[in-house]
Amino acid sequence: MRLPQFTYHSPDTLEGVLALLDEHRDNAGVLAGGTDLLVRMKHRLAGPKVLVSLKHLDSLSYIKEMSGMLCIGAKTPIIDVIRSDRVKQQAPALVQACERIGAVSIQHYRGTIGGNILQDNRCIHYNQSQLHRSGRQPCHKDGGKICYARDEADRCNSTCQSDGATALMAMDAHLVLNSTRGEHRVALDGFYTTDGIHPFDMQPDELLTKIDIPVVPGAVSAYQRLSYRSAIDYPIVCAGIRLVPDQKDAGCIGSARIVVGAMSRSPLFLAKVSQSLAGVRFDDNTAFDRAGKDAMNAAATFAAHNAGADLAFRQAMVEKMVGRALEQAAAQVSMKIAR
Amino acid sequence: MTDYTLIGKRMPRMDSRAKVMGKALYTADLKLPGMLVGKILRSPHAHAKIVGIDTSKALALPGVKAVVTGADTEGVKWGVFAYTRDQQFIQTEKVRYIGDEVAGVAAVDEETALAALDFIHVEYEVLPAVFDPMTAMTTDAEPIHAEFPNNINIHVNIDTGSVDENFKKAYYIREDTFTAPEESYFHGEPYAVAARFDYDDCLEIWMPNGGPHMKSKPLSNAFKIPLHKVKVKKITIGGAFGGRSEICPADYICALLAKKTGRPVKIVFTREENTIGTRQGHAMITTHKTGVDKEGRVLARETTCYMDGGAYSSTGPIATSVPFLSMEQAYRMESVRYNGYRIYTNKPIRGMIRVHGRGFACGLDTQLDMIAQHLGIDPVEMRLRNSRQPGEFTSTGSQVWSCAMDETIKKAAAAANWQDKFGKLPPFHGIGIGTNSVQTGFPMGIRGGSQSFVKFNEDGEATVMSGVVDNGQGNENMLVQIAAEELGLLPEDIHLVSADTETTSSDPGSYSQVSTFVGGQAVKNAAANCRQKLFDVAAKILKADPGKLTAKNRMIYVTDDPKKAVSIKKTVRVALLNFTSVNAEGGYWPRVDMKREWVSNPYGQMCEAFSFGTTIIEVKVDPDTGQVTVLNAVACQDVGKALNPLVLEGQFEGSVAMGGQGGMLTEYHDWQEGRCLNPTMLEYKVPLACDMPEITGIIVESVDPRGPYGAKEAGMSIAMSAAQAYAGAVSNAIGVYMDSFPLTPDKIVAAIREKRQAGK
Amino acid sequence: MQTIDITLTVNDHQQIIPVKPNDTLLEVVRDYLDLTGSKEGCGEGVCGSCTVILDGHPVRACLTLALEANGSAVTTVEGLADGDTLTLLQQSFIDHGAVQCGFCTPGMLMSAKALLDEDSSPDRQKIRQALSGNICRCTGYAKIVDAVEHAARPEPGCPDCHTKETGGDHD
Questions:
Q1: Closest-approach residue (CA) in chain B for A307
Q2: pLDDT at A228
Q3: pLDDT value at position A335?
Q4: Which one of A217, A334, B107, B318 is most buried, by most CB atoms within 10 A?
C-alpha cells in the first residue's frame, strides 16, 4: 500500500517542531512511531500535507519522578514503559495496558506512549480502504452525514480504543501540551470532546509533550481488557482502576477511580460508581461485583456496533472487566500489607 | 517391510534454504525489464448495471500506458465446468459483488496507476442486491444471473434409497440445524500476477497457482492462442489452501495489459483484494436428520445444506458435494439422502477451502454427541460404532481399500487420556473428539493423471520434470525424495523442474489432495523406468541379472553380493558410449469412475484412496468472558504411509491452527450490505503463536495398496476433524451443544447464560 | 516528487539512497535495493512479514518511513547468512521443518533473531510472545517455536537438531 505524498520535516528542537505546527496547523501531522498515523494515511483517512517528525526529540523520551509526579515523556517507546521498574511500582495499570498494545515487534519499539493516547478513534465501518468506503454515503467521520455503527445517529460513534489512555485516566493522569503560545496542562479526563470526528480537545498547533501521573501513597491500580486474540488486537472492552486506601483505615478504600475504555468516544470515567466504593473494604468482592454491574449500566448506553465483536457481549463484559480489575487492584493492597 | 533409504525418514525440505535466506522469489518479487504496474478498478456496488465507462481522462494521465475494460474483451464467459460458465474476466453489463472487476490500468509506477483508477468514470445503475441465500431463493428482484432462476446455482441430489423406510425403523431420531458464516484463506502471500508476451508472441505468466495447467487452458481460450503459447512459469507460492486453483480475472487482465502495452505488467493485490477478489469459504446452513438403532448405528440420514456461493460459480459443483463426501467416507450410513444447494448472492465468490464445510461437519459430530448422550454411549464408542471399515463401499459407491479410522480413534483417545477425562473433568473444562475423512482426488477427465520425465546427466545426476506444484506444503521435496529413492541417488543429485507448462506435462494440480498419490506416483514410475534402463547397462558391466540389482547411494550393486558394484555415473557414461538412452518417462492415472459427475451422476468410484483423521481437544472455558484456552491437542491421521514425518507433522500442526483454533474459535467474516467488514488480518482473527496450544501429532499407516509406497492424502483430515473436536470440546465444557459456529466468546457466554436461566 | 538522500547501513553496507518522503523502508529495501526477502503481506503492520531489525530492534518496515531510518543500521533476512554459511537460527528453521510456504519466514527469522540477541535462552512461552506479531498460516507455529528454542539450546536426542553446537551463538 502506497502512502500519499507529503513534505517531511524532522526538526532538531522542540521549538522547531512547534514552529512548524504553528505554521501548518491543520495541514500538519505529527509523526512519532507512525503505527497509527501511517496506516490511516495509507487508507486515505488522513492526508497531512506536512509531516513533522519527532525523530530527533529524544528529550521527550524519559521516565522520571518529580515533585510527587511520575512523569513520562510523550515520545517514550511503549517498550520502555513496560520495562520501567518505576512505572511497575507506581503505575502497574499502565504497564498492564502497555503490554497489551499491538505485538512486540509492531508497536513496542516504534510505538510511543503519546501516540497511543492520541491514536485516532476507530470504527469498523470507518477504518477501511477507499474501495470499501466508496459506493456508499460517507459517514460522519469521513465527511458525510450518516453513521453505520448506530442507526439514525446524528453524530460520529467512533470509539477510543487506546489501552494507555484508559489506564492513565484511571490514575488521574494529566497531559502537558506545548505550542508556540506556551504550555498548557490538562487533566486526561477533561481532554476529550464528545465528538468522535475530533475526539481530542487540542489545538492543531499543540504538541503532547508529557504525561504526569500523580504518585499517591498506598495507591494501587489495575487494568483489564478483552480482545479475541492475545496480541495485535485493539481492546473491544477494557477497564482501568485506581484505588487509594482510606487515610484512617488502611483496610478500606478512601477513593476510587473506575474508567471504562473501548466503549465510547473517550474512556469513560465513572464518577458516581467510583464514589460508591468509598469506605468499602478491600476484600469486599460483593461490592466490587456490584460496582461492576453499575459500571456496565453506566457505560453500556454509549456503545455502538463499531468494533467487530457482538455489541451486547461487549456491553456485558464491562461488568467482568471492572470487577476483575477491582479485585486485582485490591489484591495488591493485601500484598502490600503482607509485605 | 521394505528398507527405504529416504522414504519414511525425517528429511528437511530442499526448498527451505532459499526461503531462510530470503532468496526465494515470489510473484511480487519479480522485476522484468520495462515492467509496468497494473491495478484493477473494482465495483463499489454489490449489484449494478454498467451504463457507461469513460476512460479518456485516465488515458490522458502522464505515465498511464493502457486502460482495459470489458470492451477490450470478447465478453466470453468462463467457468470451471461447461454448465457453470457465468463469469467474465472484466464485466461488460453488470457487476455482481463489491470487488467485481470493471477495468484495469497499466502505468509506470504505483502512484500513477492508483491515480488513473480515480480518473476512470463508471456510470452505474444500482440494482437491488441480496446477501442472504434464503432470501436470494425467494426474492422477486432481478436474478444475479439471468440463466439461473431463483438464484440457485447448483443443486446436488444424492439418494441411496430406503431413507424413509429406515427412519421408520429407527429407535431414535434427531433433527438439528447448524450454521457457519464465511471464512477466508489468508494466505501469507497476497495474490499477484506478472505477465509479458515474449519475442515469439508467447504469453509468459507468473502467479501463485494450485496447478499451472489449470491456468494455461482458460488463458489459451481467452487469447485464442494455442496452449503451447501460454507459458505458466514456476514461481514460489505463499500458500493456497484450495483457493488458488482456478483462473483469476487478474491473470487475464494482467496479460491483456501486457499485450496492449507490449511491456511486462505486474499486478500485486492488497490484503483486502486477496480477501474479496479471489475466493472465500462458503457460509452454510445445514440440517442433519439422523435416525439410529438402539446401539447408535446410523440407519438413515437426511441432510440438506444451503451454501452461500457469492456472485459466481467457481468450483460450485465440487463445493456443493465435498462436505457430503467427507461425511459418507468417514461414517457408515445404511441409507442417506442429500440435497445441497449453492445459491448466488451479491457477495465475493466462494470456492474450496482447507476446512470446507466446517458448519456441516461440526454439526454432524455435534449431533452424534447428542445422540450418544441420549443413548448413554461414550462419544469415542459412538464413533467406533459408525466408523468406516476397510474394504467397504461409501454410500455413493466408492470402494475404500485402505482404512485405519478405528486405529486413529483409539490412538488419539489413548494419547488424550479420553477415558480418564470424558465426563470427569471439572466444570467449564471439556474434551471433544472429531473424526473425518478426505478424498485423495476426484474424477477430472483428461487432467486426472500426471506424467513425469527423468533424464540422467553425464555426471550421474538426474533432472526430474513434473507438473506438480508446491504451494508451500512440501510437494517439491516429496518429488525429490521419491526420485532420489528410486534412482539410488542423494537428494542433492536431483534437479527438479516443476510447475511450468512449457516444460512439464499435464498434472491435476495440488488442490485435490493428489500431489503425492498421482504426481508423486508418476515420478516414481518414471524414475523406476529410468533406473531399469541403467540396470540393463549395469547388468552387463557387472555380469549380473538386471532383475537382481539395487541402486543406492549413487551406486548400483548386485543385491545379494553388494561388493559387486558400479557407480551410477559410470553406468550412465557407459550407456551413452553404447548408444543407449538414459532418459525415461512414466505416468499415473487414478482408476476412478470417469462417468461419475458432480451433479448429473454423483455415483461411482470417486478416487482411489481416502484419508482418515481424528483430533481430540481439551479446553478450559472462562464462563464469565467466554475465552477458550486449549490445554491439549492430539491429532492422529491415517496417511497410508508417512513419506516424511517431519513434513507431515507440520501439516497436522497447521491444520489444527487453521481448522480448529482459527476455524472454530475466531475466524469468520462480518458483513454490512455486501461489504466485508474484516478483509484484513487486523479484524479477521487468524491464530497467533501466543494463542496456539502445543500439539501432539500421531501418524497411523494403513499402507494403501495403490498409493506410492502406500501413501495417500495427508493433513486435511486433521484440519476438518480439528474443527469438529474444538466444537465438541467447547460444547462439553459448557454443557451446551452449540449449533452456530465458530464458537466466539459472545456465543459461549450467551449459551452459558441461557443454560443458567433455564436451570432456575 | 523530489528525492532526498538518506544514509542507510543495510546488512553492514553503508550507502546513500535517494528516497521520496512517502517511501517506506520496505519499499526502499525491496524496490531500490532489490532485497526482496522482506515481504509485504498486509501493509498495515499486522502480519509481520516485513519485519526488519532497525538499530537493534525489530520493526515493521511497512510502517517505517525511509526518511525516519536515515542514519540507521538495518538488517534484513539477506543479511543473516555469512555468504553461503547460514546462522544457527536459519539452519534450525530448516532442520526443524519450520518453513512451509516461506512467505512469513523472513519476518519470523528477524523477530526470532531480535529475541535471541536479547535473551540467549528464552523458554517456549517467551518465544511465542516474541513471535506473536508474526502471522504464519501454514505451520501452526509449533515447528517455528521448536526451531527458535533449539537454535538457542540444541537438544540432545532431538531427531531434527542437526547442528551439534551448544550455546546461543545464533549469529
A1: B683
A2: 86
A3: 72
A4: B107
The nearest CA of chain B is from the CA of A251 a distance in Å of 28
Best interface-test mutation with B: which of A228, A289, A314 has the largest number of B CBs within 10 A?
Answer: A228
On chain B, the residues whose CB falls within 8 A of the CB of A229 are 666, 685, 687-688, 691
Fold that domain C88-152 belongs to in CATH:
DNA polymerase; domain 1 (1.10.150)
- pLDDT, one tens digit per residue, over B346-401 is 999 999 999 899 999 999 999 999 999 999 999 999 999 999 999 999 999 999 99
Q: How far apart are CA A315 and CA C108, in angstroms?
A: 36
Helical (H) or strand (E) element with A223: strand A220-226
Pairing of strands B298-310, B192-197: unpaired
CA–CA dist A229, B678 (Å, integer): 15
Stretch C61-84: mean pLDDT, rounded?
A: 97
A50 and chain C: CB distance < 8 Å anywhere?
Answer: no
- Is the Cβ of B473 closer than 8 Å to some Cβ of chain A? no
pLDDT in tens, C11-53: 999 999 999 999 999 999 999 999 999 999 999 999 999 999 9
Virtual torsion, Cα B522, B523, B524, B530, nearest 10 deg: 110
Q: In the CATH hierarchy, which fold is given to the domain comprising A1-54?
A: 3.30.43
Q: Into which CATH architecture does domain C4-79 fall?
A: Roll (3.10)
pLDDT at residue C164 greater than cutoff 80: no
Task: From chain B, pick out residues whose CB is under 8 angstroms from the CB of A148.
Answer: 672
pTM, rounded to two decimals:
0.97
CATH number (3.90.480.10, 3.40.630.10, 3.90.550.10, 3.90.1170.50) of B31-127+192-268 reads 3.90.1170.50
Contact with chain C for residue A6, Cβ under 8 A: yes
A232 closest CB neighbour out of C46, C65, C110: C46
Peptide bond into B742 cis (omega under 30): yes
Radius of gyration from C-alpha coordinates of chain B: 27
CB contact under 8 A, B625 and A226: yes
- C160 to chain B: closest CA residue: B10
Tell if the CB–CB gap between A31 and C45 is shorter than 8 Å.
Answer: no
pLDDT tens string B628-644? 999 999 999 999 999 99
Q: Inform me whether the pLDDT recorded for C169 exceeds 90.
A: no
Q: Is B672 on the interface with A (CB under 8 A)?
A: yes
Per the CB < 8 A criterion, the answer to whether B500 and B22 are in contact is no
For residue C132, list chain A residues with Cβ-Cβ distance below 8 A: 103-104, 230-232
* C109 touches B: beta carbon within 8 Å: yes
In three state form, how does the secondary structure of B478-545 look?
HHHHHHHHHHCCCHHHEEEEECCCCCCCCCCCCCCCCHHHHHHHHHHHHHHHHHHHHHHHHHHHHCCC
Query: What is the rounded CA–CA span in Å between residue C47 and residue C60?
Result: 9
Q: How far apart are the first and last CA of chain B?
A: 62
Q: What's the CA gap between B741 and B664, in Å, rounded?
A: 6
Residue showing cell 488513473: B116
Task: Provide the shortest C-alpha distance from residue C169 to chain A (in Å).
Answer: 22
Spell out which residues of chain C touch residue A122, defining contact as CB-CB under 8 Å: none
Residue contact C101–B237, C-beta within 8 A: yes
CA distance C53 to C35: 14
Measured between CB atoms, which of C21, C65, C111 is closest to A34? C65
Instruction: Tell which CATH classification among 3.30.365.10, 3.20.20.70, 2.40.10.350, 3.30.565.10 matches the domain B355-440+601-759.
Output: 3.30.365.10
B163 falls in which pLDDT band (50, 70, 90)? very high
B36-42 and B101-107 strand pairing:
antiparallel
